[in-house]
Specification:
This protein folds into two domains: 14-158, Toll/interleukin-1 receptor homology (TIR) domain (Rossmann fold, 3-Layer(aba) Sandwich), CATH 3.40.50.10140; 164-421, no CATH class. It is built from ten helices and 18 strands. The protein has helices at residues 20-36, 44-47, 53-62, 80-96, 142-158, 202-222, 235-244, 305-312, 342-359, 373-380; strands at residues 14-17, 41-42, 67-72, 101-106, 130-135, 139-140, 167-172, 187-190, 226-232, 252-256, 262-264, 276-282, 291-297, 318-325, 364-370, 387-394, 399-407, 415-418. The strands form three sheets. A seven-stranded mixed beta sheet has the order 12-14-13-15-16-17-18.
Length: 421
């Protein structure tokens, strides 16, 4: 019996139907991209609990789905569960509710009309459903992946649960998503977490590079007056997210820490002299390309060593560097400053970063961040027009590694290149 009780839930997950034997590469790719765009996903690898296999699939469908993807590979024709339970349930849902989003990833046939038989459907049943081409070995092309994700993000934002006086975006780069998956915020972005020997996951950053422009367009189209960001992202990602949503695009923004502190973008319009260049140096460049380095060091106790290692072995084009600090009296309990200083410090740090770049002919900036994640996000919102390499600290070997190339003048997607190893 098919999952006849399958229900549409705009905050529910997207169900990925695939055959383990030859569809895993595509399914894993879909899961990463959809989660990197902020959408919840149900896939049997991570979301099945105890119980009979068919019953668990039916339960997932009955609890409510926002959409589904049928990954059709050659071995799907051998799967009774896919044909009788998963495909039947998803197709039944789209028949009952036009809001349900369903697509097919075709990795089984060169003929767009040749998928009915493998799925046990009457000829012509699947013609109305959007198809994307893939191969079992390599998965979707980057362009096909973007088109698929864009369709689901648009449907997600069309649901009545989105919008209002603010938009909540959670972004996680260190932890796995909850199970079972349900939308807890307007968008819940989960990137692949790093392995033990990685400072940050390259795979996760590549997925973000693919989806961030899609997220940007959806949020801009929502015309939200306030963007509220939460989670525990790496600092390079927090900065890139801020750069993707500058003050010129989203007037107000807030970053919320794990303990509920709200760091607001509201604050002074001009610098007040809190952030200073505690150390700086200029040198003759060995290259025609002009580059500068800025260390935003806003946590106690100070740690100069990793940045000093960089400036002592600089790239050939480095012409100047600056080490930004704030007065000791700004630090409170736990060697941190409070959210009431966040926008002031972010504004002044961004000003110093821009000034050092402009002093050297709008030089490329090597940016090193050591600060609370909300400050990295708020600084990112304020450095439009700059071109930067943003670094991430590697605890395993005590040094900074380049993570992202960020071009803040790019409106579609500020991440130009992933540099993390």
């Amino acid at each position: 019996m098919p999952a006849t009780g399958a229900a549409h839930d705009p905050r529910g997950p997207i169900f990925i139907s695939y055959r383990h034997s030859d569809g895993k590469t595509i399914a894993d790719q879909l899961v990463r991209l959809l989660r990197a765009a902020g959408l919840p996903v149900w896939i049997d690898q991570s979301d099945l609990t105890t119980g009979r296999f068919e019953d668990r699939i039916r339960q997932a469908m009955d609890e409510g789905l926002s959409g589904g993807v049928l990954v059709v590979t050659p071995d799907v024709a051998k799967s009774v569960i896919i044909k009788k339970v998963e495909a039947a349930g998803l197709l039944g849902l789209i028949d009952r509710d036009s809001r349900f989003s369903l697509s097919i990833v075709n990795a089984a046939s060169d003929d767009w009309t040749g998928l009915d038989e493998p799925l046990g459907r009457r000829k012509g049943t699947l013609e109305r459903i959007k198809q994307f081409t893939a191969t079992p070995e390599e998965g979707l092309t980057e362009q096909a992946g973007k088109e698929l994700v864009t369709a689901y993000v648009k449907d997600h934002f069309a649901a009545p649960t989105t919008g209002g006086d603010h938009l909540d975006l959670r972004i996680e780069t260190r932890v796995a998503p909850p199970s079972p998956a349900r939308a807890e915020h307007h968008l819940d972005i989960y990137l692949s977490s790093p392995s033990d020997d990685e400072a940050i996951s390259r795979e996760g950053l590549e997925d973000l590079r693919t989806t961030l422009g899609i997220v940007r367009d959806a949020i801009a189209s929502s015309r939200t007056p306030l963007l509220r960001v939460s989670g525990k992202p790496h600092l390079s990602v927090a900065f890139a997210l801020g750069a993707q949503f500058p003050k010129t695009l989203i007037g107000r923004a807030e970053a919320v820490t794990a303990d509920g502190e709200v760091w607001s973008s509201s604050g002074p319009a001009s610098p007040e002299g809190i952030v200073r260049r505690e150390r700086q140096d200029e040198r003759e460049s060995l290259s025609t390309a002009k580059e500068v380095a800025v260390y935003v060091d806003l946590i106690e106790p100070r740690n100069d060593g990793p940045f000093d290692d960089f400036v002592n072995r600089p790239p050939a084009g480095l012409t100047a560097w600056a080490h930004l600090r704030i007065p000791d009296e700004c630090f409170g309990h736990g060697h941190l400053f409070g959210p009431e200083l966040g926008q002031k410090i972010a504004l002044e740090a961004a000003h110093e970063i821009r000034e050092l770049s402009y002093e050297h002919g709008t030089a490329h900036v090597h940016l090193f961040l050591r600060c609370p994640f909300p400050v990295a996000f708020l600084i990112g919102r304020l450095v439009n027009t700059l071109d930067l390499t943003v670094y991430e600290y590697s605890k395993s070997d005590g040094r900074y590694i380049p993570a992202l190339e960020v071009d803040t003048s790019r409106s579609g997607n500020v991440i130009r290149k992933v540099l993390a190893p």
